[in-house]
């Protein structure tokens, strides 16, 4: 073990010993080496800088091919340099600072959070967390049904063990899902656990009410009294909330400081919050003050993982995001997208309310991009068979989840087409169930 790695591990062990116990073997081994990026950063202000192997104009500026520079013509000299040169491994500092400021709107100083680290999208943020806290046999709790990519990220890639409990019971959010899953998950006493909290959810399109948030928090605190808990707050759909009484703020903030052995980690990014799907800018934020020993240790470990996989995050996308975050009107533009999605949400809600309960059972939804519909068991209609039928006979594409759920992505359908989509879905179920559509 190098001195650097020993120092980084000791920092984490002294400030957050329970979190240090959650590290996977890879998480313990990884550190940002004092290699080329670190040496180049130290030499940044030198006149004769022959450190980094990127092509420059000889004075630290970029050397873009003119045709490519024209494509990014809206960026001026310094910003163009930023877009064409390597990003720092942790991300462009101003991007990180502005994202932090935006994340922390309305949050008090008593809830510490690190300077977010930039990643190549939220899937990448999650895979970094899987590398740090997953690994062979590590229990990862997620309420079901859940986004299938969690299986790949945690179980397939690292050998972690997914355990689950229903997200809803009789139409009511199951705030004890993590306690229930752990109780049935055959964990040893004191064994660490990772919990994924994805609100607004995919595929459910659900955000917890204020009461449910308090109940979820209390349940996770009870869990942390028994074992260290890393709670991954997957805030992919942050801000996409359509009901006045549902909070737009991440549960990360409710969990910071809630218990000494409870560690929320915030996963968010520009993908959906800035409708910048192709940009691949994600972030990772830990519940420690910037510059604290634990923040520095975790930063070093995340940078080590970024350096050893994608090298550094994408600079050109960060430059685009930065230009946007500097404009005050960007928040109005984000709000305009939210309003557009809110309209689709309302139209879908209305259309689903008209359907026959014997054919379709919409799950509660209030936010995000999706609605989830359960097929009544007694119909004997398989969700995948229904999906195939809708493709072949109803010119309609939806997602099947397990044997009994269909997910509707209302975020990607024109509001005027949503009622017809629902009619076709209902007709498809009726056809397969050999029943006629209609109430009564
Ligand atoms: C719940 C959830 N988390 C994470 C992601 C991944 O986001 P990204 O496209 O930035 O990798 C998605 C994307 O659909 C998602 O639904």
Structure description:
This protein is α/β, with parallel strands linked by helices and 440 residues long. The protein has 2 domains: 3-32 and 89-325, Type I PLP-dependent aspartate aminotransferase-like (Major domain) (Aspartate Aminotransferase, domain 2); 331-433, Aspartate Aminotransferase, domain 1. It is 42% helix and 12% strand. The chain has helices spanning 3-15, 17-22, 25-29, 36-42, 66-71, 77-84, 93-103, 122-133, 149-158, 177-183, 210-224, 252-255, 270-273, 293-307, 315-325, 330-353, 383-393, 418-433; strands at residues 117-119, 139-141, 161-163, 168-169, 172-173, 193-197, 229-234, 262-269, 282-285, 361-362, 370-374, 399-401, 405-409. Helix 1 (3-15) packs across helix 14 and helix 6 (77-84) packs antiparallel against helix 15. Residues 436-440 have low confidence and may be disordered. Pyridoxal-5'-phosphate (PLP) binds next to helix 8. Residues 121-123, 147, 198, 202, 234, 236, 269, 271, 282 line the site of pyridoxal-5'-phosphate.
Topology:
Layout: H1 3-15, H2 17-22, H3 25-29, H4 36-42, H5 66-71, H6 77-84, H7 93-103, E1 117-119, H8 122-133, E2 139-141, H9 149-158, E3 161-163, E4 168-169, E5 172-173, H10 177-183, E6 193-197, H11 210-224, E7 229-234, H12 252-255, E8 262-269, H13 270-273, E9 282-285, H14 293-307, H15 315-325, H16 330-353, E10 361-362, E11 370-374, H17 383-393, E12 399-401, E13 405-409, H18 418-433
Parallel strand pairs: 2-3, 2-6, 6-7, 7-8
Antiparallel strand pairs: 1-9, 4-5, 8-9, 10-11, 11-13, 12-13
Helix pairs in contact: 1-14, 6-15, 7-15, 8-9, 16-18, 17-18
Bound molecules: pyridoxal-5'-phosphate.
Pyridoxal-5'-phosphate binds at residues 121-123, 147, 198, 202, 234, 236, 269, 271, 282.
